[in-house]
Design brief:
mainly alpha, 2 domains, 9 helices, binds zinc ion
């Protein structure tokens, strides 16, 4: 959804910084830049509401938090697939909106805001040279060299992991990445646990332990 937490804040801050830098003397244009930089994510909400029939933003946020977790046994809640609309495809949105802005200049702040938003969504840790330099061509888990290595988030930014911090990423070989994923799945942990998720999991786990002890 991106309406939640970190992503909303980073879109807001980046659009505000760019809007105020470009239009220091035109508050309405700056405001329009900020609004466009933030409002693009309402497409996720609209798609959710149309598919689920639930127009309550709280329900949408709850669904957003839940949907990134791998399915658990007995959980039959419906999933609504990808909630990215075509507006989130930069190769479609950007040429259209910039063409419109060239023809009609009042649209320029909108084009700037949308560009900032899509640029932020396009975070590519795979090309983060800080992680690659730190790893020196070796898997940071098992140390193997000379095999394909990929950058993985330790805690995904959607779950509160730090998007721009190299400490939140590691360069792993395919085997290590699979091992980590399997360990997370078999522990019934969400793939990328947030602090809240983790404490909820721990709570459930400790309740289960109490239950098991009673059974014995
Ligand atoms: Zn977005
Ligand atoms: Zn490895």
């Amino acid at each position: 959804m991106g309406v939640s937490g970190m992503r909303f804040r980073s879109h807001l801050l980046a659009a505000a910084a760019v809007g105020l830098a470009l239009y220091p003397r035109a508050p309405w244009r700056a405001a329009l830049t900020i609004l466009s930089g933030v409002a693009l994510d309402t497409d996720h909400f609209l798609l959710y509401a149309l598919r689920s029939g639930d127009w309550n933003p709280v329900g949408a946020l709850r669904y957003d938090r839940w949907r990134h977790h791998p399915p658990r046994r007995g959980d039959t809640r419906p999933r609504y697939g990808s909630l990215r609309s075509v507006a989130h495809e930069p190769q479609i949105t950007l040429p259209l909106v910039w063409l419109a802005a060239l023809l009609w200049s009042p649209l320029r702040p909108v084009a700037v805001g949308l560009t900032v938003h899509l640029a932020l969504d396009l975070h590519l840790p795979h090309y983060d040279w800080r992680i690659r330099r730190r790893a020196r061509g070796r898997c940071e888990r098992c140390g193997i060299a000379g095999v394909p290595l990929e950058v993985h988030a330790l805690v995904h930014p959607r779950y509160g992991g730090r998007r721009w911090s190299a400490h939140n990423y590691a360069l792993w070989c395919t085997a290590c990445a699979r091992a980590v994923r399997e360990a997370r799945t078999s522990a019934h942990l969400p793939d990328v646990p947030s602090p809240e998720c983790r404490s909820a999991e721990e709570e459930t786990a400790s309740k289960e332990n109490v239950w098991n002890r009673r059974q014995v």
